[in-house]
Amino acid sequence: MFETLSDRFEGIFARVRGKGRLSEADVDEVLREIRLALLEADVNFEVVKSLQSRIRERAVGEELSGALNPAQQIVKIVMEELTASLGGETMKVVPAQKGPTVILMAGLQGSGKTTNSAKLAMWFKKQGRNPIMVGADLQRPAAVEQLRTLGRQIDVPVFSEASDPVAVAAAGMIEAKALGRDVIICDTAGRLAIDAELMDEVRQISEAINPTYTFLVVDAMTGQDAVTVAESFHQTLELDGVILTKLDGDARGGAALSVKEVVGRPIAFASTGEKLEDFDQFHPDRLAQRILGMGDMLTLIEKAEEVFEADEAEKAAAKLLDGQFTLDDFLDQMQQIKKMGPIGNLLGMMPGVPKEVRDVEIGDKEVGKVEGIIHSMTSEERAKPEIIDGSRRTRIALGSGSSPAEVSQLIDQFKQMRKMMKQMGGFGTKKRGGKRKSGKKGKKGRSSGGRVTAKGGAKIPKEALALPGLEEFEGMPGFPGIPDLPGLADASDE
């Protein structure tokens, strides 16, 4: 989501980047392009109008910073106003002071209430809470069974009974207190469209359980219709926040940019995938940065911290720089990265990644192919890939369902990456773990034995380890794998 909008903003800012100053006419032209981009993204017209007005007032009316060039000033203003439209600050979910925290989940059928009830329960578990889920959706066949299946996956109890939804919700409160649960998440029924019966039922459930928070689950793929749905539910329930689902889809993103300003309630959580782990609090500033092509390093770091152990990461880095990194180590790292979510999503969080790379579909199939090749090797071959000859390559290819050429490509790129990282680890005046040994004195007191590379510096290969499907992008600045290091090119010539 937001790829098209992000591309449009990238083009708009590129046109003003070379200007020494921006006239009022230039600002109006930029605003016209921004308005068209937002309307094409299915953003509510009133929201576009308000956003455009605020940007113009600041860009023309204020005395702009002399430390920034015109393009930087426009980007700064647009990012701040876009963040404000998305909600400004991250919504804080504070536990109830007395008794359990009660969450009412509302929404239309198909929006993802049941799945996101489980995702929210898992999120509370990570916060150290003890949730229970109450299945009050007795309208949809197998809805309660689906909730119980999800509950078993995350080890959270589920309560439901064959009566009416209001009675189930009230009985669920009693059951939660008996079990000592401090968070109650009540999943309610939905309809294909808003009707009086749906609204009356959800209102009665709300009165029966007196929720601490009422969250509306909205499908981001529905565009501006999501805003209409949110308005209707808010009139009945007094919403506290919105949970936006399917943010990993290919919708244009209008719902995310419209719901806060139109309904007046923030987006509390966002679901970015099908897995139960693909769910987190919604950060308006981070999404604004992603829309403007600046990446989202904070979320990327948080995801890495969740799956990587600090000690293990340090050991892997040390082995990499010492040239002792094996294919077993690489396989471990790949499996850790997979836990962070789809690789395509991770690339979208990295600033400066070329559009052509962001648009490439990198799924579990491509990653699985690399894993299959490595798993088809013996432990000796993974530790010493240089022993893999033609017959071994053929055996590995047959065992992994790949071709000998793909096996060769993976091995060659791995060797190059390991060699490059070992050379990078050798830069500097001291080796890790000991003092640098001086060579014998030659003419004019110079050391003749200190040089360890041939004249002209170490020849560092440009290729790093790549996943299948990314070969055509090799050689692009900053991609793949290892980022460009300032001064590294000069260091090799010294």
CATH architecture of the largest domain: 3-Layer(aba) Sandwich
What is the CA-atom radius of gyration, in angstroms? 28 Å
* Terminal-residue CA separation: 46 Å
Helical content, roughly? 40-55%
Number of domains: 3
Low-confidence residue ranges: 428-494
3D shape: flat
Subunit organisation of the chains: single chain
Tell me, rounded to a whole number, the average pLDDT. 74
CATH class division of the largest domain: Alpha Beta
In which order are the strands of the major sheet placed?
3-2-4-1-5-6-7-8
What structural class do the secondary elements suggest?
alpha/beta
Within the CATH hierarchy, at the fold level, what is the topology of the largest domain?
Rossmann fold
CATH-wise, what's the superfamily of the largest domain? P-loop containing nucleotide triphosphate hydrolases
One letter per element, helices H and strands E, the order comes to: HHHHEHEHEHEHEHEHEEHHHHHHHHHHH
User: How many alpha or pi helices?
Assistant: 21
**Strand portion:** 5-15%
Give the beta-strand count: 8
Largest sheet: 8 strands, mixed
Give me a quick take on this structure:
With about 500 residues, this protein is of the alpha/beta class.
How would you portray this structure in words?
The protein has about 500 residues and is an alpha/beta fold. It has helices at about 5-15, 25-40, 45-60, 70-85, 115-125, 145-155, 165-180, 195-210, 225-235, 255-265, 285-290, 295-305, 310-320, 325-340, 345-350, 355-360, 365-375, 380-385, 390-400, 405-425, 490; strands at about 100-105, 130-135, 160, 185, 215-220, 240-245, 265-270, 280. The chain has an 8-stranded mixed sheet, with helices on both faces. Helix 5 (about 115-125) packs parallel to helix 6.
